[in-house]
Specification:
Blueprint lengths: L42 E21 L2 E16 L5 E9 L2 H4 L7 H20 L4 E2 L1 H23 L7 H23 L9 H4 L4 H4 L20 E7 L22 H8 L3 E5 L5 H18 L6 E5 L7 H14 L1 H6 E5 L15 H4 L4 E3 L6 H9 L4 E5 L4 H14 L2 E5 L5 H13 L3 E5 L2 H4 L1 H4 L7 H4 L5 E2 L14
Parallel strand pairs: 5-6, 5-12, 6-7, 7-8, 8-9, 9-10, 10-11, 11-12
Antiparallel strand pairs: 1-2, 1-4, 2-3, 5-13
Helix pairs in contact: 2-3, 2-4, 3-4, 7-8, 8-9
């Protein structure tokens, strides 16, 4: 068992990480005798740095019945040593998204955000104190139990009436996980998505996904090169104006407000529709109104929609009635609904259990908030969920593993973000581009956090200047790590 010195930044207490056989190195590099003890994709952590950005939304984004008007973004840099002894620095970034990942009716916004920021400090200390030498995927497997313990400790220290939930732990840890994968790719001089073979990881997929995946290669679930283009899903939040007449306050910043203007501005062909799940008539009329505006603005378009209820539906009957009524009123609109996302509670084991088999006969039913680990994926499949949403905010490690599981089980795939600007959007776009078969990427920071995207528009215009409804992800080809820096 090995521990960093007490001078490590952010260490509030000694913490040892269990070390697997043969992985501890006495030398200061990974060369020489130590090279044979670790896989070629292994890295060693040297130093961790964190910082926060604060941003206000251009307009509030309403989902799950709650309007959000601000974001705190966690940025992480991790200095590492690669297998050849060269130093590299990996970078990760992610909004903490406490309203989505830590929903509560008893704790105010500042309390849940403060808890996640406090957890980020504990995770920084844990990662900086890790002496394990391993592939980033293996580091995630080793460190995640420590993050869960840290969340329990942070919750107790703050006397929280509701402890930090598993999804909020994943979101807080995701920037660290991204930074490790970024460093791992840079150490090998290639995309992090091309570092997933058993010889580089040191294990096959069964180590992470169970015996069903024995002798399977994670790299087989990733494209050999990123898709050149990925469809962009534009989000229409619960309070967003569909018609010009619904605009309450005109903004003079050069960006659209009403849906038709957004369609023309970005050349849209995909829309994510945020619904209430508590007012069936409103949900049906909202969907039909959005479809009518879309077809009137861009008539010769193969429109595709995501109907996202953010867990608000009381039961599967609500979903069935919504889909049947939309089809009755507009067969074309119904045909355009590509999938339905997380219609009922993220607690998949809540009683009475909500079975989605009847609904999945009409449209793919995608699990999002309820997907936090392999067990929850298997639980969702048993309940009739036929698709899943990959999210960088749940971690790069989870994203590629979920992609492999979805491929094996024949599940529908889409990629969502967490109003991710800048580097966080690059992480999300990478998942959408490198994982085959994804329906598209919801990327809404250009709507709600455009100022945070501005420094990136010239760096990667294909991702940050949308004119044809597509993210031009071919710009990620040849970029080492996760492609942001």
């Amino acid at each position: 068992m090995s521990l960093r010195g007490e001078s490590m930044k952010g260490m509030s207490r000694r913490r040892a990480i269990a070390v697997s056989a043969g992985a501890t190195l006495a030398a200061t590099t990974l060369v020489g005798r130590a090279r044979a003890a670790v896989p070629a994709g292994a890295i060693r952590i040297e130093r961790v740095r964190t910082s926060f950005q604060e941003h206000r939304y251009r307009t509030p984004y309403k989902f799950g019945g709650v309007p959000v008007d601000r974001a705190t973004i966690l940025d992480v840099e991790i200095d590492c040593v690669g297998a050849d002894g060269r130093p590299v620095t990996g970078s990760g970034s992610m909004p903490l998204g406490n309203v989505w990942s830590f929903p509560t009716r008893t704790l105010p916004y500042d309390v849940t955000l403060g808890a996640m920021k406090g957890l980020a400090g504990r995770i920084e200390a844990i990662v900086a104190g890790c002496t394990e030498v391993a592939h980033p995927l293996e580091l995630a497997r080793i460190l995640e139990p420590e993050f869960a313990k840290a969340a329990a400790e942070e919750s107790a220290a703050r006397g929280l009436a509701e402890p930090i939930p598993p999804l909020a732990v994943l979101v807080t840890a995701s920037a660290f996980d991204a930074a490790l994968h970024d460093a791992g790719g840079k150490a090998l001089g290639r995309s992090a998505f091309l570092t997933l073979t058993p010889d580089l990881i040191g294990h096959d997929l069964s180590r992470y996904l169970g015996d069903d995946f024995k002798n399977e290669n994670l790299q087989d679930s990733i494209r050999p090169a990123p898709a050149p283009r990925v469809p962009l899903f534009h989000s229409v939040g619960g309070a967003d104006p569909v018609h010009e007449s619904e605009i309450k306050e005109k903004l003079d910043d050069g960006l659209p407000q009403a849906l038709a203007d957004w369609i023309r501005f970005n050349g849209l062909e995909r829309i994510k529709i945020k619904l209430q799940g508590e007012d069936l008539a409103w949900d049906i009329e909202r969907t039909l109104a959005i479809d009518a505006v879309a077809r009137a603005t861009k008539p010769d378009t193969n429109w595709k929609y995501c109907a996202d209820f953010n867990e608000r539906c009381p039961n599967v009957e609500y979903v069935l009635e919504y889909l049947r009524k939309v089809e009755e009123k507009s067969p074309a609109c119904f045909a355009a609904i590509e999938y339905v996302e997380q219609p009922t509670s993220r607690n998949l084991r809540a009683l009475p259990r909500v079975d989605m088999h009847a609904a999945n006969k009409l449209r793919p039913i995608v699990v999002d908030e309820g997907l936090v680990d392999l067990d929850s994926l298997l639980e969702a499949r048993e309940l009739g969920y036929t698709g899943l949403a990959l999210k960088a905010c749940k971690g790069q490690s989870h994203s590629v593993l979920f992609a492999a599981a979805a491929r094996k089980y024949g599940m529908f795939l889409t990629v969502q973000d967490l109003t991710c600007p800048g580097a966080a959007l690059v992480h999300s776009a990478g998942i959408a581009a490198w994982v085959p078969g994804t329906a598209g990427l919801e990327a809404n920071a250009r709507q709600y956090l455009p100022a945070a995207n501005e420094p990136w528009a010239e760096k990667l215009p294909g991702l940050f200047k949308i004119t044809d409804g597509m993210l031009h992800t071919d710009c990620l080809a040849g970029r080492p790590g996760l492609g942001a820096v």
